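ok so I'm stuck.
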Amino acid sequence: MKKLFFAALAAFTISFSANAQDEAKFSLDLRAGANFATTTAKAEQGATKTSRLGLNAGVYANYNVAPTFALQLGLVYSGKGYGEKMGSDKLNLTLEYLEIPLNAVYKIPAGNKVKVVINAGPYFALALGGKIKASTMGVDVSTDVKFGSDQDKIKGTDFGFNFGAGVEISDKFLVNLNYGLGLTNLSNDTSAGATKVNNRVFSVGVGYRLFSK
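replied:
not stuck anymore, here's the structure
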């Protein structure tokens, strides 16, 4: 699946470069918003899982294949993770990623310079860092997340799919909703009964088209 993603990424880059001097329409968007992140990890007995509020911000390059269809490549900072709460005790896992989404985008004219936008596609993400913060009986503890292949570490890459929808106004302003479905099991625990840990992220954002040609 990852090989297919990078093959599509290479094809997009070649297409972008080959058509840069033609009349094909390209645009560059700046976007930012909020992530409401969680994972498929099970909460400790008696605890309640909570979502983590994180930031997403990045740039997206669009290649308009047709008036209603485009290919989109992004470079995005994305804050993920999850939390747990049991009474006054809290646990928060923060994961920070550099994400590369590759989307197919379908645009539906809705009148008065408004378009409904639907997008879907794979993403690859590289972990930039992370922290585990715990608060128990008024004592706060924080430690850095360790990435790697050892059983007590978290995998440093993530792969999955994005599904989104939004509106585009006057070919300048963007409002979008997105759901990120992580397919990578971040846990290296292969013991019997081990829980898979996959990222799940619902995000909202706004954007501005920096230029188009």
